[in-house]
């Protein structure tokens, strides 16, 4: 059986979304209580909901997990993971380390867990370039060490510091080719 879900994990600004976009398979849309950013669409980037709605879904047993990040709730519905791959289409998602671990523990070798890592100094610069406030930069970098040490649970780790993006993209192209090949009838 081939992979049906690719999960990206790693520190904030390491390049998870960039590499997820490069992989180019449909995303598993997760839930968040944070406000949509400019250009983000409901049901495409996230299911945007209130904190209360997400908590209710969790209590109803519909959520695999729920996680608090920078004062917002994030969560993945069980059905979105279970349904992945049913149509023969691999799906991808970006998760924090605890969420990624749950998916890997529960769905095992259906899941390809990719860790993305870049130097701490470069992440600080990327966050600065993104015009993130100093307080938010500090908060995001606080989780750097935790996310970095959790990478040991990954099936593979892609290094994505300055100058490594082209190679990282080639690795992703290689993975896409492998996945597509394996799911071809
Ligand atoms: N555990 C968990 N983490 C999620 C989920 N959806 C998104 N995240 C993580 O939430 C964090 C914040 O994402 P976001 O608000 O889009 O901001 P970003 O830091 O710019 O990517 C990222 O580390 C995502 O990987 C989810 O369903 N569960
Ligand atoms: N290897 C790289 N070198 C320089 N900048 C990069 C590299 N990879 C990604 N970036 C940039 O860093 C920023 C954060 O990347 P993003 O994919 O949004 O990270 P994450 O999803 O992990 O938070 C983006 O502006 C992206 O274009």
Describe this protein's structure.
A hairpin with a 2-residue loop joins strand 4 and strand 5. It is built from 8 helices and 8 strands, in the order E-H-E-E-H-E-E-H-E-H-E-H-H-H-E-H. With 185 residues, the chain is α/β, with parallel strands linked by helices. It has 2 domains: 1-27 and 89-185, P-loop containing nucleotide triphosphate hydrolases (Rossmann fold, 3-Layer(aba) Sandwich); 29-83, 2-Layer Sandwich (Guanylate Kinase phosphate binding domain), CATH 3.30.63.10. It has helices spanning 16-23, 51-59, 78-82, 97-107, 120-129, 134-142, 144-149, 165-183; strands spanning 5-9, 31-32, 47-48, 63-69, 72-77, 91-94, 111-117, 156-159. The strands form 2 sheets. A 4-stranded parallel β-sheet has the order 6-1-7-8. 42% of the residues lie in helices and 20% in strands. The model has no long low-confidence stretch (mean pLDDT 92). Guanosine-5'-diphosphate (GDP) is lined by residues 12, 17, 30, 34, 65, 67, 69, 74-76, 94-96, 99.
């Amino acid at each position: 059986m081939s992979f049906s879900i690719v999960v990206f994990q790693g520190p904030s600004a390491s390049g998870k979304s960039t590499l997820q976009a490069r992989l180019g398979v449909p995303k598993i849309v997760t839930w968040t209580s944070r406000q949509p950013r400019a250009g983000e669409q409901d049901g495409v980037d996230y299911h945007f909901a209130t904190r209360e709605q997400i908590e209710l879904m969790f209590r109803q047993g519909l959520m695999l997990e729920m996680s608090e990040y920078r004062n917002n709730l994030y969560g993945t519905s069980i059905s979105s993971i279970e349904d992945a791959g049913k149509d023969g289409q691999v799906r991808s998602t970006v998760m924090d380390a605890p969420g990624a671990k749950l998916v890997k523990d529960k769905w095992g070798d259906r899941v390809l867990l990719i860790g993305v890592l870049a130097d701490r100094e470069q992440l600080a610069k990327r966050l600065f370039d993104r015009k993130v406030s100093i307080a938010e930069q500090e908060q995001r970098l606080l989780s750097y060490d935790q996310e970095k040490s959790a990478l040991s649970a990954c099936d593979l780790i892609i290094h994505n510091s300055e100058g490594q993006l082209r190679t990282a993209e080639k690795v992703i192209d290689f993975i896409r080719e492998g996945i597509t090949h394996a799911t071809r009838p």
